[in-house]
Design a protein that fits this description.
By secondary structure, the protein is an alpha+beta fold. The protein is 14% helix and 34% strand.
Length: 236
């Protein structure tokens, strides 16, 4: 199985080094010296990692045969792809590789179909399931134990207990409108109060369903019951 483990960024310096956006939780294994990686676009590889180092919190790599800034810049935005044995799984039973979770069916605890996991988005704060609904739309499900209550890889199913508004935007909008209506009615019936306009109370800003911005990596573990994610330990 082939999985993306990094994306090449800008050239660094004049000796062929490049910055790398890491997409694996095991960079010392997948991106170590001597590793041979396929690429996307395919005609830019395969690439053999000659050396690597961390500079200002970023991983820098040098590839065999790339000796100057021009060669490094030519690799910008190249995806680095590692061959991974699909039978290998994390030692911790509460950790998962992304390829184990992709294509799982997502249902609520009462059996209502939500959709299918098509992507895992890894953020600094938490991991997200990108779930495609039957109508083709997408919803983001935070991978925390408070929401994802069980995973059954044999049955290819993830069971969730979503908070209000997470998988049904209409419910969230209706709730906000109801709150506005009640606030408006209360103001109109208060003695001595000035009448308000038809919109009533100011609506609180609405975030997206996840409360977080997209991102990615490849090792995944659920957060704890409080909703705070655990740091992923596994990788591809």
């Amino acid at each position: 199985m082939q999985l993306v483990v990094a994306r090449v960024g800008r050239a660094h310096g004049i000796k062929g080094e490049v910055t790398v956006e890491v997409r694996t939780d095991e960079p010392e294994l997948r991106l170590g010296p001597g590793a041979v990686l396929a690429t996307d676009p395919a005609d830019r590889g395969p690439l053999t990692i000659e050396s690597g180092r961390v500079h200002s919190g970023r991983l820098l790599l040098r590839f065999a045969g790339v000796r100057d800034r021009n060669g490094a810049e030519a690799l910008r935005n190249t995806l680095l792809i590692a061959e991974v044995d699909p039978a290998v799984v994390p030692e911790d039973p509460d950790e998962y590789y992304d390829h184990q979770l992709i294509d799982l069916d997502v249902v609520t605890e009462d059996g209502t179909e939500v959709g299918r996991i098509t992507e895992i988005s890894h953020l600094p704060s938490q991991d997200l399931f990108i779930v495609e609904r039957p109508d083709g739309s997408e919803v983001m499900i935070p991978f925390v134990t408070e929401i994802v209550t069980s995973l059954d890889l044999d049955e290819q199913r993830a069971v969730i207990n979503p908070p209000p508004g997470l998988i049904d935007d209409r419910a969230e909008i209706a709730s906000a409108r109801e709150a506005e209506r009640e606030a408006s009615e209360a103001a109109d019936t208060t003695p001595g109060s000035e009448s308000e306009d038809a919109t009533g109370a100011e609506r609180a800003p609405q975030g997206d369903a996840s409360g977080a911005a997209p991102g990615d990596a490849d090792g995944t573990s659920p957060g704890d019951a409080s909703g705070e994610p655990r740091a992923p330990k596994g990788g591809v």
